[in-house]
Protein 1
Amino acid sequence: METKEILQKYGRKLEKEIKTESFSGDYSREYQQFKKDMLPQVTRYETICNAFGSLITIKLAKKDEEKLRKQLNTAHIELSPEKAMSLAVISLLGAFFIGILLSVLFFFINESFPFLLFFISLAIAMFLFYYTYTYPARLANSWRLKASSQIVPAILYIVAYMKHTSNLERAVRFASAHLEPPLALDFKKIFWDIETGKYSTIKESLDSYLDTWREHNIEFIESFHLIESSLYEPTESRRIEILEKSLQVVLDGVYEKMLKYSRDIRGPLTTVYMLGIVLPTLALALLPMASTLLQGVIQWYHVFLIFNLIVPFFVFYLTSEILLKRPGGYGESELLEKNPLYWKFIDTSVYTKAFLIALPFFLLGLLPLIFQYTPIPELFGLEKDLTFAKFGLSEKLFDFKTVGGQISGPFGAGALLLSLLIPFSIAIFFSLSFSWRARELIKARDESKQLESEFASSLFQLGNRLADGVPAEIVFSRVAESSKGLITENFFRTINQNIQQLGMSLEDAIFHPRRGAIIYYPSALIATSMKILVESVKKGLQIAASSLMSISQYVKNIQKIQERLRDLLAEVVSDMRSNMTFLAPLLAGIVVGLAGMITLILSRLQILMQTISGEELGMGVNIAQFLKTFNVTTMIPPYYIQIAIGIYIVQIIFILTATLVTIDSGEDKLKTVYEIAVNLRRGIILYLFAAFFSIVALSILAIIALAGIA
């Protein structure tokens, strides 16, 4: 007891004398920055889970719990696995019971049980369960893809720093300060775990973090282990050799993984194309005849349910499984939010402009329904269904048919042609709005890419001048003179002007938030090189020269590997793009023409047979039975079939473009938005031309053929 009292007495005395609030060590700054970046920005998913996840308690198997916990931790979501699973179960039960309630209500109103509504609600419930259950996995995969695209720059930062200062702790801190999220946050968590006492050394915390990459990027772990081993090398040359080897290990690992991935995804992508595009489109060609033979069992809303909800979900599921297997370490690492033109990307006014442009086309596409089901034509003294009588044809423009007081249709070629404007209006809305959001940012990125391609030689020149003893503040003007006609000339001249005319320091001349040269060329590679230059100049010109020459060689290696990876993926990428923007729209357009031709033939045959006298039509065929079997009024109007096909083409372009960009460049929102705009424009134009000429040509062919019979 005496010992305890003594400890308490002096403990209280020490607490009064030591003011911990004034402590400002390096790790505390890292810890404060990490708290600022990471602490409670409660996401929508976390809010929903916290609100509904506690309603029921789900006991998970140990294996499932560990798997889900790992996904949540990877995505930095502060939730328990039980709450995430509870939300999935509640989504399933909620949608299922709502579907049962609506079905029972419908049964009491119409005295017939709506099996279709029941199965739809069941499908929606299963979809919601799958979506909410796999949502942590998708978030974790998204985080991993973003972080893995920064692996090579991260190793480059650490290696460049440790070449002149052999201190792992400071090198990791340097990388965490200059990388962008999400990998920067992961590196800061390494220090946070030390600050909170979870680990006692940087090596323990680092090894624990690296273990999270074991299933996805073993080369990243090997590279860090090589960096750690360089600390124990007795000679300087051997230490530098091991550091350079660590970067080469990461580059080789990225190449080997993408090589294997490019081979593995060809089969699944072929499956996506056949099951998601070819077979559904061919099935649509049989719908007019099938709906006639089934006597109206298949309705137009069944088509929309299957081809605009179920099949797109199936394609989305298949492509998601492909993307989950994509290895990390390669892709766009630029943080879009840092771009000075980012405000244009998040500008929502473009949607209003695009909507006003697309709305007239959408209303024109609805003209057959407006004429038939609204009093608008009567206000202007027009008929509800116009005819081609002036051209000597008996066909009606919209061709609605009334049987037993029920209106069916439209079956006319005019209505079918007008329906092309509905998918066109949807495509033009997204194409214009997405293009306006992304075109200037993508232009700035292209200029940055051009600068990156020239930057390796410019870095070598910069390193040579520094090695000659030219101060860093003067060297940029000399390199700019030797780079005339290149984009790098403007970059170096901007830095020189900031130093000479505005009196900025080297760091401010490059990275000043308003005047820095880097804001005009937003590139992760250039920013990485310049940050290493600024840091190494503090150690001396020779060290800076050596660092820049090394980076120049690394840049050349990275560019070579990127070109090899593009070559590996070129076949897959070109196949997907041709399927999405050429084969699928062309095939769908021909199918629309076939549907219109089948409808026209059956309509004319029905009119023709009704004029034939007698009960038999050759070889004992009963006319009444024939007309009943091929009754046009029970057919799905090609007007609705075309709308379903057109919307499906738009959906497929959205899904496959996002897949294509992720395969080629990793998680890249800017490129996804821009590519969707371009592919929508190409795909929908080809589809409209193919459908228009198919409808016109096959309709004329059918009229000529039936004229000979009449």
Protein 2
Amino acid sequence: MAESTSESTSESTSPPAPVAPEARLRVGIDVGGTNTDAVIVDEQDRLLAKVKHPTTADVTTGILSALRLVLAQLDGAAARVSHVMLGTTHATNAILERRNLNRVAALRLGGPATHAVPPLTGWPDDLRTAIACGSVVVDGGVEMTGEPIVPLDEDAVRRFLDGVAEQAEGVAVSGVFSPVLSDQEFRVEELVREVLGDVPVSLSHEIGSLGLLERENACVLNAALVAVAGRVTAGLGDAMNANGISAEAYIAQNDGTLMSLDYVRRYPILTIGSGPTNSMRGASYLTGVTDALVVDVGGTSTDIGILTSGFPRESSTAVEIGGVRTNFRMPDLVSLAIGGGTIVGSANGRVTLGPGSVGYRLTAEALVFGGPVPTLTDAIVASGRGGGIGEIGGPDAATRAAAHEELLRRAIVEVDARIEEGVDRVKTSGRELPLIAVGGGSGLIPEVLAGVAGVHRPENHDVANAIGAAIASVSGELDRVFAYGKDGRDESIAEAVRLARDEAIRAGADPAYVEVVEIEEVPLAYLTEPVARVRVKAAGPLKTH
């Protein structure tokens, strides 16, 4: 996730602005590795207040502080807040750091056909050790047409669950072609309740699409993240209570929309990738542009993606998370290990960029803040890029960076080359799109860049991520295979639309205003009857009471 950096303002010098008694306000918060950003917007999505506060080691303290500071900028704001939206790296960090993960029992419905490649094959050893408490392949699964391969072996399921009862903190159930017919996965969920009681269960057809191993991997990761989701939602609730806010809370998910706290507790994996998508949605709002390249430069990384009709373009291929291939919906991004906190050095006469970053210690360790470590934020200041961004660190910042001017100049040249390469990698055609630079470290982006139709750095670019969370709508998505010979094409499409709408409503959308925003139909060849993969996305505004 790209996190905002560069600016370190935790207090606003402007006097608090008055809030009309009838005004309803929304708070957007985005947690990055360097700063936690918070904004307040009104019912017309106008930005009223913003703050950047250094992210704390325990993350939650940073959320509480950023919320307190942004509320302090508006008189009586806490009582007017109707919604709080949070974008967070908790789930991503838990996987990358192998910490705070549930022990998961992986149960595949795929015998006798899939024994050759057992569950968790190809996982990094340390991640498998942190998560797995047992896995099994039992007879079951269906054909692509929905016909059972063999009956589900319920006795084998019970024996496996009895064997992991003392260890399992979650169960992941994956069936062959379960996106076509999910009855067997639901039946196993019932058996888990009978044998293990109230243990969290993740079902693969609710998370991923076709591709058994990648869908199974995503399902296991989801089950491992349930406790993390519980801590995130509880922490957000505590921060809201501490600041006197009684409002509905939502978590940002990785398609640029929101989900309710109940929904995130069931599908925590959908929060992975939410940071870049928040920034992309915020970039679209700040510029009014709906089709563009977006480069989000944070403290530890830079994410490059493409906006299509105002939403991030989704990846059409398997995505690797923590060394594991998955196939649930994710934004199509190119991520670079450079950001405002990236440490600049030299080796064998060449400049080196990272991969280390000073992270949330930027204001203590970067040269421009009086620290000893050359960073790319120092390179921004030394180069004078980004207009006002180059004023970071006060009037003496440039002087402090001057001692390393040659090194920092070479670093900027290397950054330009990596950004241009990243832009080329994310583009799928020769068409030149405008490029929107956001994030606190966006001063790294030059004013002229090859292959783009101009570089735009909008006002309030530094909090585009929090703005994206604050203005987001709620969505639901269905990605399933339908056999048209059974129900007919029109009936199948109508069923897909209904299920996608239901998902959006479950996630927190207002039922009266949910609309279908995308329908994709891909016929599957070489089958004896008409079969197609149907993907439907529905979205709507937040439900209010």
Protein 3
Amino acid sequence: MVSLTWQMVTEDNLDIAHARQVLDEDHYDLKEIKERILEFLAVRKLRVERKGQFAAEDEHPDLIRKQREGVILCFVGPPGVGKTSLGLSIARALDRKFVRLALGGIHDEAEVRGFRRTYIGSMPGRILQMLRRVESRNPVFMLDEVDKLGRDFRGDPSAALLEVLDPEQNSEFRDHYLDVPFDLSQVIFITTANWLETIPDPLLDRMEILQLSGYTELEKVKIAQGYLIPRQLRENSLHASEVIFEEAALHRMITEHTREAGVRALERQIGKICRKIATRAAEHGPSSDGTLPTITITVDNLTEYLGKAKFYNEVAERTERPGVATGLAVTAVGGDILFIEATRMAGNKGFIVTGQLGEVMKESAQAALSFVRSMSRDLGVDEDFFNKSDIHLHIPAGAVPKDGPSAGVTIATALASLLTGRLVRSNVAMTGEITLRGQVLPIGGLKEKVLAASRAGLDTVLMPKRNEPDLDDLPDEVRQKIRFVLVESVSDVFQAALEPAPPPGNSIEPNQIVASATAP
């Protein structure tokens, strides 16, 4: 108890211009989060400058709701977009100390609240232990990977965090080992997560959610030029004049050698090039002045350092065959494209769905089939078609679990393409859920999905009309490059996604049709 930081605090640097400069130096873009930190600083600065000016409030203080001095933020986004490093940058901007606790794999709630003194080997919880080590009562405290908390017979650690992350309660946090109140109200708590779905709702309600989406190709190039390349040159003991990366080579690295929402894989590729150059320097030795001749990384010599391309435009390959469409998905690494394939064989009203799907997507497939069957006359399909046919719907990459409430539109498009033999436009991606009445329902994760369409080289996205306000969150670069078609019904989707019917002489036999659409 004596070694705890009861009164030790660090004085905040309330210079907003300094904070803005530090945040811009360390991270590219992330405007929303930077503005939130500057707002916190501005409120603190006004509170110090105007202390004592509000006499009426000072005479009649609020006895129920205490004045909040800290802040509780939750950064949510795919790996590699800068969530953890942003906490360090915030601490540097405020001149506060920084402490990080990794919550991944913690199962015991005593790790957070401490062990009772009746147990042998009991000790305080990690919250107070880290505050003691950092020697400050108001640090920036990062709780990393809050969505990876475990839960078993030893208790629920997320329940123990409810008091820690509640600004109304944490001014009197009681650790089981100490059993005396400790004030956590001045700590800036920052949690990070890849998913919101696995965080319990009561805990989620106590935090201010700030979304970090993936980066566009142009943003990745800027990050590489301003942050990744200088860091890799320093780590590999190279001078800036010895290695030059052309912008076209960076674009090629992003599209053909990495596929991610963040920039970790891109930095690894840059580091790989720098290590090869450093190896040559160590073998052959530098010039007489101690430096290497300048090496320029271009599109032509990129294969020499990184080998052949690992990724290619899969959409272009698939669209060479009739009946192929592209849809959009949200995954653990941001947005991605995912194909759904449908084929027909002789049978009797059978319907098979494969690809390791969750219950939500299986139900979407059933709803989509029922709707397409109800529209068979409008689509020009013989009513006896289903009596003589079995339909198999498959989502490739069967070892990868897939689920989500936005697959209906693309499944319906795949089935319509199968039944009619009409090609699906090769430049179109789609997302949205449907009802049995043919309405298109809104979806989540639109920004991640649109960024995935942009990375895949698609220029048209079909999306629910009720998601139109979400377009404001997209970067200007993406909005200028992609045409958005707002749809309210599945009929609108078919009209925008399907090519005109082929001439009678060029029609494709039903058992040769493979229709694909992408699931969310």
